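Dear colleague,

Thank you for sharing your sequence with our group. We've completed the structure prediction you requested, and as agreed, I am returning the results in plain text so they can be pasted directly into your records. Please verify that the sequence below matches your submission; if there's any discrepancy, let me know and we will rerun it promptly.
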Amino acid sequence: ILATGYSFGIQISIGGYPSQSVNVYHNSVNLFGGIASQISEFHAAFKVIGSTSNLDVRDNIFSCGIDNPNTIYDKSYSIHCESTDTAFTSIDYNDYYAFGNEGVLAYLNGDITTLGSLQSATGQDANSISGNPEFISDSDLHINPNSGFVSNNGFYLTTVPTDFDGDTRNNPP
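Please find the predicted structure tokens below.
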């Protein structure tokens, strides 16, 4: 997605249903590009608004690198969660990638810049990784077949046996 303002790839807004369970499985989000705005903004590949304790977030790629050359206060997060560290019943096997001048890995009660710090903050993410997923292109989010970084590093979920294109998922994906 080429950004044109505040941009969120996947946004979960819990609102008046904080006990609602939400599963976020097998998504690839790539926010990239530049915007020219005079205000401070932030962007996130995955954004959680509101307080919750029932998020299951596994086997995703959250990539964000939006650049606003007009401000030094812009931030591009791979994941931005306004809830507490207990928001996640399960969060693991994700690739968090924040790149560019404004790239910040995560936000959870403050900016988090390393995978180790994110793992400490969530108390989970033991099998998650942080790095360039090596998509075919900015708009083709298939993984480059020559990449070994994210290929076969996931956890097979029987509830999602095929991908968006109808391709059968490998085990591990």
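Summary note from our side: The mean pLDDT is 86.

Kind regards,
the structure core
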